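User: My instructor asked us to take a sequence, write out its structure as tokens, and then describe one feature of it. I'm not sure where to start. Here is the sequence I was given:
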Amino acid sequence: MKKFLLFLAGLVALTVLLANLGPMILLGVSVWLLYVVFKQFMKSDSTAGKIGWGVVGLIILSIAVSNVYAVIGVAAAFALYWIYKNWTSKSEEVRSTKSDDPFTNFERQWAEMNK
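Assistant: Let's start with the prediction itself. The structure tokens for your sequence are:
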């Protein structure tokens, strides 16, 4: 049952990630462009250059703010990672060899003797 629920959650997270892939790319590009514009703004010595880079920065900032919901896609990517880690964990399969149940120990010892 746990694997089925993880599969369904992974399917939903993958759908959300694919739906937000475009805005995630656009958000990344706009943040990178904001960095470039900021560097050029700081290098500019003239007032007209600073005003020009400021206007370009505001335009790119408006693009970045309009795609801020792409953070949902990042959360979906994190959820997919978490689901993958839980899917491949061996916690269910790993059993302790020592048990308080005498019948389990007897069966294990009997199997070792018959080898």
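For the description part of your assignment, you could build on this observation: The chain has one domain: 1-91. Try explaining in your own words what that tells you about the chain.
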